[in-house]
Specification:
- The chain has 171 residues and is α/β, with parallel strands linked by helices.
- Helices cover 25% and strands 22% of the residues.
- The protein has a 5-stranded mixed beta sheet.
- Strand 5 (93-99) and strand 6 (105-111) form a beta hairpin.
- The chain is globular, with a radius of gyration of 15 Å.
Length: 171
């Protein structure tokens, strides 16, 4: 199975609705056995009915949620919130091993915002994030650390033309 990263942004779209349609189209192609990590703010501007319809239409059900600055905590953390049933975990950050086909693995630290230092960094750990809307692309190119903006409006996402990046796209 693949591990996929997703983070929303609005820079290349005329409005949020157009962006959400593009993201949904990409997510509908994700196989059921894959893992999706939402790096925050994916449902910005959507009400609970729209979110439910969105989530119910995606075949892959193996989701992890990293909270973004625009995510409404009440929707995720309260017992009345609709979101907790869609995610294996809802956290501010996520540390997860990603296994490779040759039996190796990478320690991945996922957060909504970039960090200068992260768990596993000195052992080859990779840091993935969103939030910055591609504004750190040039800095990333000159920095030898293993960190990557995987937001939909980052240079990386734009070069692949998809809102969903596979882990193998970034290593």
């Amino acid at each position: 199975s693949n591990v996929l990263f997703l983070n929303s942004g609005t820079r290349k779209f005329k409005d949020i609705s157009e962006m959400n349609s593009w993201i949904l189209e990409g997510l509908r192609r994700v196989p059921e056995g894959d893992t999706i990590i939402d790096l925050g703010d994916m449902f910005w501007g959507m009400d609970s009915g729209e979110i439910k319809k969105f989530m119910d239409s995606i075949p892959c059900k193996n989701w992890y949620k990293v909270m973004g600055n625009h995510d409404k905590e009440k929707m995720y953390y309260s017992s009345q919130g609709i979101m907790h049933k869609y995610f294996k975990s809802i956290q501010d950050t996520l540390e997860i091993p990603v296994y490779t086909r040759d039996g190796g693995f990478y320690h991945v630290f996922a957060s909504h915002t970039p960090s200068i230092d992260w768990p596993g960094m000195y052992r080859g750990g990779i840091h993935v994030y969103g939030h910055v809307h591609g504004h750190l692309d040039e800095w990333e190119k000159s920095n030898p650390r293993l960190m990557c903006d995987v937001g939909v409006d980052s240079h990386l996402a734009q070069s692949f033309g998809t809102p969903v990046l596979r882990f193998t796209d970034i290593i």
